[in-house]
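Many introductory courses stop at the sequence. We go one step further.
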Amino acid sequence: MSPEWFTDALAAPVESRFVESAGVSVHHRIWGAQHTGPGILLVHGNTANTHWWDHIAPALAADRRVVAMDMTGFGDSDRRDTYSFDLWANDIRAVLDESLASGSVIVAHSMGGKPAYLAATKYPKLGGLALLDSNIAIKPDPDRLAMLVSHADSTPRIYPEREDAVRAYRLFRPDDSPIDVADFITEHIARNSVRPVPGGWSWKFDYGVYKAVLDPPAPLRPLDVPVSVIRAGHHSVIDDVCHEILLRDLGPGVIDTTLPNAGHHAMLDDPHGVIELVRQLVSDWI
């Protein structure tokens, strides 16, 4: 059974919208739509979607607008023939322009950190960038890279019924270690990560997104806005080498933070810790 705080969060009013980015539609959802002034944009990681933030966003939207988006190829956004981090950065800027005021903050998880960083380098109206366990400094190791690229050319499995796909849904940590996420959170995400396809049900994300991992790491430099590097306390994708590069190349003003109770999927492992930290950052920045 889901706890009251979780069911209350899912019952919070939310508005769904679409905006065009380079010829396709980008889906995003808004909590606290009545609020004006700078807000928060939540950006998901690989194979994820806007619903990974459903239990986080309402708590952040008490006094400001909060938007969670689906990058193209994920969730309910359109698909493209090919993907790149630059195109996803365009998706982010399109949502910022459409639904958030100047001075808003981006919180980007995992793979979403790279397009969020690229967007920040070309978007002077930000209030800050928080990288949530996001390795934007180093390319995946060759074995993992080959595995990811091989997925791009494979065919997603089709399940005859929605419940079959939901039961088959799995979260994966980058190091293949065990997952310790509450069942009610996993269940909610699973139900919102499948879609009807000819012959049954399959995943919402496009396997073609995996080819974008061939893009080189972002050329890091200090930004003109506050930046926070948030490292998971365990199973982090930010190893010591990556951590050192991020702190060095993003500039001396970077806020270095650890969520001790969170694994890589921080918003799932430790939602209250993420909420508290993001509230504090946003309060300090805007």
